[in-house]
Request: fold
Amino acid sequence: MADRQATKSQGSGHPTPFIEIARPDWAEMANANSHPTPLTEAELVQLRGLGDPLDLAEVSEVYLPLSRLIGLYSASAAQLHRATSDFLGERAERTPFVIGIAGSVAVGKSTIARLMRELLGRWPHTPQVELVTTDGFLFPNAELEMRGLMERKGFPESYNRKALLRFVSEVKSGAAEVRAPYYSHLSYDIVPGREIIVRQPDVLIVEGLNVLQPPVSGSGLAVSDLFDFTIYVDARTADIERWYEERFLRLQRGAFADPLSFFHRYADLTEVEAREKAHSIWKRTNEPNLLANIRPTRSRATLVLRKGSKHTVSKVLLRKL
Reply:
C-alpha cells in the first residue's frame, strides 16, 4: 500500500518526500501491526483538550498505530546504538528517544502529546515516557514586556531558545537529572521556584508551537536537530481559527472566571464581545505566527497528521526513508 501511495504522489506532478496515507488505509495497518492497548473513556476524558472531540475510535485507528510506528523507530535507534557501540568497542548507555510535536495554537497538539505519552508508556520497551512543553521556556512576562514582545508571545523570539536547547541536549546526553521551568496557564507566566524534573526517561516528548524551527542563524544547532522523530499537526487555517474561537469561548465561560486568571478581564464579556476578542487575538498574533513561523516547518517533520474540518485526522503523511 505504501508503494502505491508513493507512486500516486509522484504521478500527480508534485514530487514529495512523503508517503500520503488515507485514514482508512492507516487504520487498516493498525489491525495488521498493532495489538490492543485500550484506553477507557474515563482515561480519555483526562487526556482530551478543551473542545477536542477525540474519541476511542480515533485512538484505535490513528494514534495506536502511530505509537506502534514510533516504537519501531525507537527499537531501530536502539539497534543502531548497539551496533555503533560494538564498532567503537565501548558500552555507552543508550540515551532517551526524543520526539518533537509541533503545530498551531488550538490544533490539538497538546492532546496528542498527552495521548502519545500514555500509549507509548504501555509498550514494553518504552515504559517510562516524559512530556515537556516549550511553554516553560518562554521568557517571563516581565522580560517579554521589557523587550516589547508581549504581543508576540509564542513567536520564536519569545522563547529562551538557548535554555531549551541546553535542556534537550542534557536529556539527550543521558544526564541523570535535568530540570525545566514550570509554566502556569492560569497566570500565563513562568512560576518562580517551580520546576519539572526529567530523570533519564526511555522517551521524552517535547511539545510546542515552534519546536521544528531551523537554527536561528542558518548555522549551528537547533533543538529540532536533537529529535529522533517529529510530528506536525496540520489543518486548514480557517478551521484552526474556528477551533481557537470555540476554545476561547469555553475558557471565557470557565477558567477565565477565576480571579487569579491572567484573562479574568474577559470573563464578563458578552458572547458577541468574546467572539470579537478571540478574532482580534487570532488575527493579531496567532495567525501571523502560524503563517510566518509554524507552518513553514511542516516539511521538516517525520510525520504529518492532517486534520479535517471536524477536528479529526483525515490522512497521514510519512516521510520516505
User: Anything to note?
Assistant: Strands lie at 18-22, 97-103, 129-133, 178-184, 189-198, 203-207, 229-234, 303-307, 313-319. Confidence is low (pLDDT under 50) at residues 1-11. The first helix runs from residue 2 to 11. The chain has nine helices and nine strands.
